[in-house]
């Protein structure tokens, strides 16, 4: 087959452009990336060979070789792992399959300084080779296949693929170093880079200089098998970078050996920044499963529940059989026990860090709180434990609060833990629904994550306190003792008979556009607001579902009117005196629209709204 010329996927082209012109302060990390890929590839072949030993041919000892050639200005990284066939080569080294890539690229600003720090979090893997090389050649043969392939590119938009009869099993990557990058042929330099970034790789990495014996330059023992006292924080961090394909500082590192009925080692990390795909529909689990140091899979759904999907790392089991297939992992009792153990450890670690002033728990919460909250309704057994780990914004101060702290501040006569859900904090704080609560000093939790809607309605209580949305009509403030010195608001209200007449007139005017009209306990400043019947779907949830095309049509709400508001008092007096008329009907419609607007919803009929508004304004001028 002749040489094929192909274009990089547009996203790759964009990345390459940044890589080549990037200001990477430490270009040396290209070596970490290539060694990491080689090690992954050896791991995959070792796993495949458990069921298909012939794949190994006569070459069962995995290794990664570095072969510098100062005279030629090249550095070669060769592995005898799984290798790639023709189609894999094109897919893996011509596109980016990672979910979230497009979104990531759309965040690039064109300002190279900012972009580089973004790329720092994203990582460019294989393509980082172009930081130091003007040309990269990959010669590869997939284990078990006869044909080998050569891939070449100068990183400028195109690559070529042709047959390579000389290819051996695995991948051999040759970098033609750019002028000024020849330090990457120096043995001393290569050794120190490997020591720094790749010492934890379980596969031996060797260096073969011209005219010298080959020597192994890493420890070649899996990091998690070493004892904690022998591992430096720097080594943990490098391992995290390798295993998580991440580039930030881990927020938490958890390394332990479980002994007893089930034996396994866990080396787990909580990332310091949010992975791109954390809310992506086809996100994966990111904890790698090993059995007695043999890599099994990095996609084992059963290892951790989805609400802990931010955890990265390695679990190495003593008890699972080596030839465990991915199918066998489903409903596996050993794995189920490991999972229980892992969940306990991770939640325990979160609790520990949440109680430690130095733990910087707020940083974790701001990054992953929305994910952890899924556990409140997904993991019913641990609901209370997870609720204790949750942090909330509330009408009490600007910081985070726990539910326990909230309960400690509850007012005499306060029946429930009150919540309000919405899209953004500032808007929520100004919501008319909160007026009465604020006036009585009753704290309300301000919930702005989409997930909040779901757990709030699924979890009726925390300890023995009911959680109740302020927008539900059941929210009852009458029993809460008024603050010392607060005015008796009854004195300030429209007389009861006038209110009754007004409410009857409003009901008549609005018909089935509302479920009911009521005098409000909760309003102090605003004239009107909309609430849902307790037990009905909350208005915010309905809006969220509608945004996803899932909800039924809008349902009528209860319109609450404030008997202490000047407009309502005036209107009540007018209706009592001269009955209802066209103006009252217009005002009724305007009041309902006003309440909708405050909820972030458009008036039901914008044209009619504008017409009525103009009319009322005109009347206001005395015209
Ligand atoms: P990542 O390692 O995060 O998947 P990379 O850009 O480093 O991303 O590599 C892209 C893909 O190319 C890998 O997922 C793998 O499938 C393939 N690949 C890279 N290097 C090798 C190698 N040495 N042997 C086999 N496959 C490789
Ligand atoms: Mg990689």
Description:
The chain has four domains: 217 residues, Histidine kinase-like ATPase, C-terminal domain (Heat Shock Protein 90); 136 residues, 2-Layer Sandwich (Ribosomal Protein S5, domain 2); 88 residues, Rossmann fold (3-Layer(aba) Sandwich), CATH 3.40.50; 132 residues, Heat shock protein 90, C-terminal domain (Four Helix Bundle (Hemerythrin (Met), subunit A), Up-down Bundle). Helices cover 36% and strands 19% of the residues. It contains 20 helices and 22 strands. The chain has a nine-stranded mixed beta sheet, covered by helices on one side. A hairpin with a 2-residue loop joins strand 18 and strand 19. The protein is elongated. The mean pLDDT is 88. The site of magnesium ion (MG) has 4 residues, from helix 2.
Task: List the ligand species.
Answer: adenosine-5'-diphosphate, magnesium ion
CATH topological fold name of the largest domain: Heat Shock Protein 90
CATH architecture classification name of the largest domain: 2-Layer Sandwich
How much helix is in the residues?
25-40%
């Amino acid at each position: 087959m002749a040489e094929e010329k192909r274009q990089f996927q547009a996203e790759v082209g964009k990345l390459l452009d940044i890589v080549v012109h990037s200001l990477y302060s430490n270009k040396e990390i290209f070596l970490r990336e290539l060694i990491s890929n080689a090690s992954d590839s050896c791991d995959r072949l070792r796993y495949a060979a458990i069921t298909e030993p012939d794949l190994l041919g006569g070459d069962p000892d995995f290794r990664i070789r570095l072969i510098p050639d100062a005279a030629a200005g090249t550095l070669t990284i060769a592995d005898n792992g799984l290798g790639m066939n023709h189609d894999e080569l094109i897919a893996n080294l011509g596109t980016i399959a990672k979910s979230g890539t497009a979104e990531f690229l759309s965040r690039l600003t064109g300002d190279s300084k900012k972009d580089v720090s973004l790329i720092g979090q994203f990582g460019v893997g294989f393509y980082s080779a172009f930081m130091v090389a003007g040309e990269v050649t990959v010669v590869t043969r997939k284990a078990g296949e006869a044909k080998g392939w050569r891939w070449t590119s100068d990183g400028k938009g195109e690559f070529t693929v042709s047959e390579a009869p000389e290819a051996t099993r695995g991948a051999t990557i040759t970098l033609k170093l750019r002028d000024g990058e020849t330090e990457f042929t120096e043995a001393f330099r290569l050794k120190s880079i490997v020591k720094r970034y790749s010492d934890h790789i379980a596969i031996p990495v060797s260096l073969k200089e011209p005219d010298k014996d080959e020597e192994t330059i890493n420890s070649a023992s899996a990091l998690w098998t070493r004892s904690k006292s022998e591992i430096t924080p720097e080594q943990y961090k490098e391992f995290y970078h390798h295993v998580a394909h991440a580039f930030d500082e881990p927020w938490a590192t958890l390394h332990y050996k479980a002994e007893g009925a089930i034996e396994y080692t866990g080396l787990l990390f909580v990332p310091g920044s949010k992975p791109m795909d954390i809310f992506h529909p086809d996100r994966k689990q990111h904890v790698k499963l090993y059995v007695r140091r043999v890599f099994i899979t990095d996609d084992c759904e059963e290892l951790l529940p989805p609400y802990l999907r931010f955890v990265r790392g390695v679990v190495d089991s003593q008890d699972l059989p080596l030839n465990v297939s991915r199918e066998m992992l489903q409903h596996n009792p050993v794995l189920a026990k490991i999972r229980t153990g892992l969940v306990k450890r991770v939640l325990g670690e979160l609790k520990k860090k949440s109680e430690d002033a130095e733990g910087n728990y707020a940083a974790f919460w701001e990054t992953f709180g929305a994910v952890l909250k899924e556990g409140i309704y997904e993991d019913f057994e641990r609901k209370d434990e997870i609720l204790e780990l949750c942090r909330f914004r509330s009408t009490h101060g600007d910081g985070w609060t726990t539910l326990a702290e909230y309960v400690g501040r509850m007012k005499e006569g306060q029946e429930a833990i009150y919540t309000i859900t919405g899209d953004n904090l500032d808007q929520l704080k100004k919501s008319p629904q909160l007026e009465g609560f604020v006036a009585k000093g009753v704290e309300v939790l301000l919930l702005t994550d989409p997930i909040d809607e779901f757990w709030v309605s699924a979890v009726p209580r925390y300890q023995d306190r009911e959680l109740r949305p302020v927008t539900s009509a059941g929210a009852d403030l009458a029993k809460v003792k008024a603050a010392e010195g607060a005015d008796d608001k009854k004195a300030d209200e429209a007389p009861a008979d006038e209110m009754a007449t007004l409410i009857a007139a409003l009901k008549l005017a609005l018909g089935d556009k509302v479920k009911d009209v009521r005098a409000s306990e909760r309003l102090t400043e605003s004239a009107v607001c909309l609430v849902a019947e307790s037990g009905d779907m909350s208005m915010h949830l309905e809006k969220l579902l509608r945004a996803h095309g899932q909800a039924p049509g809008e349902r009528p709400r209860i319109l609450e009117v404030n008997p202490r508001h000047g407009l309502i008092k005036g209107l009540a007096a007018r209706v009592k005196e001269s009955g209802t008329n066209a103006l009252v009907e217009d005002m009724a419609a305007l009041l309902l629209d006003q309440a909708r607007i405050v909820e972030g919803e458009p008036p039901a009929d914008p044209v009619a709204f504008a017409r009525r508004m103009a009319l009322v304004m005109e009347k206001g001028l005395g015209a």
